Amino acid sequence: MKFIAIIPARYASTRFPGKPLAMLGDKTVIQRVYEQVTKQIKDAYVATDDERIYNHVQSWGGKVVMTRTDHKSGTDRIEEAMEKIEQGGNTFDVVVNVQGDEPFIQPEQIESVCRCFDDATTQIATLGIRFGSNTEAVQNPNSPKIVLDNRGFAMYFSRSVIPYCRGKEPQEWADHFPYLKHIGMYAYRREVLREVTQLPQSSLEIAESLEQLRWLQNGYRIKVGETTTETIGIDTPEDLAKANAQLNNQ
């Protein structure tokens, strides 16, 4: 099975404009993401809509694809990038989407997502990590929860705490159920990526503001790999400061 990784990177971010080009130690955020990804998947491309990012990636020898500026989601940007890459005659079985603001993504996390496709019924794969007994983290709506079936496929994603632990106080729930936090890395079979980008927004997606619910609601099967490694995503300048502190500690 042949894998390719696409890393979407936009310059215009509401909370942190220019984030991909921000310095993390002696390298930019996007270069660190790219270098981590290529430890596991050699065929990797940055997909961007900004010439500054495009030229920067080329300056250190990275592979990069220029895409349109009007995409509504990273998934749409990845589909356009794949169409351009395939014009050169390259074909791939699975497309892995790694966020451009995850400079500490680990090769074993990428491997975990890729191994989900050992199951022939997997159409889409993603990643989760156990919350442990941290009740406050479980209750955070910015940390979506995943409910799995017995074969490791997602039944639902929610910003709410699910399942409800009847007969227990909410502050005790994390001690009585192994809640799973969603980590937003995805992989798609090539034909599935093409299909899901054609779907209109679904009612569940709109309600929870979670794009993956569009795919579930349309009947696609999402396999969930698990990791024990917590990474730092960079959404704000404050996150970048924390990431630099972590880098210094390493």
Structure commentary:
By secondary structure, this protein is α/β, with parallel strands linked by helices. It is built from ten helices and eleven strands. It has helices at 29-37, 51-59, 74-86, 107-115, 135-138, 173-176, 190-196, 203-208, 212-217, 237-249, and strands at 3-9, 23-24, 27-28, 44-48, 64-66, 94-97, 124-130, 145-148, 154-158, 180-189, 222-227. Strands 1, 4, 5, 6, 7, 8, 9, 10 and 11 form a nine-stranded mixed beta sheet that branches. A two-stranded antiparallel ribbon has the order 2-3. The longest helix has 13 residues, at 74-86. It is globular. The model has no long low-confidence stretch (mean pLDDT 94).
Secondary structure: elements and pairs:
Elements: E1 3-9, E2 23-24, E3 27-28, H1 29-37, E4 44-48, H2 51-59, E5 64-66, H3 74-86, E6 94-97, H4 107-115, E7 124-130, H5 135-138, E8 145-148, E9 154-158, H6 173-176, E10 180-189, H7 190-196, H8 203-208, H9 212-217, E11 222-227, H10 237-249
Parallel strand pairs: 1-4, 1-6, 4-5, 7-11
Antiparallel strand pairs: 2-3, 6-10, 7-10, 8-9, 8-10
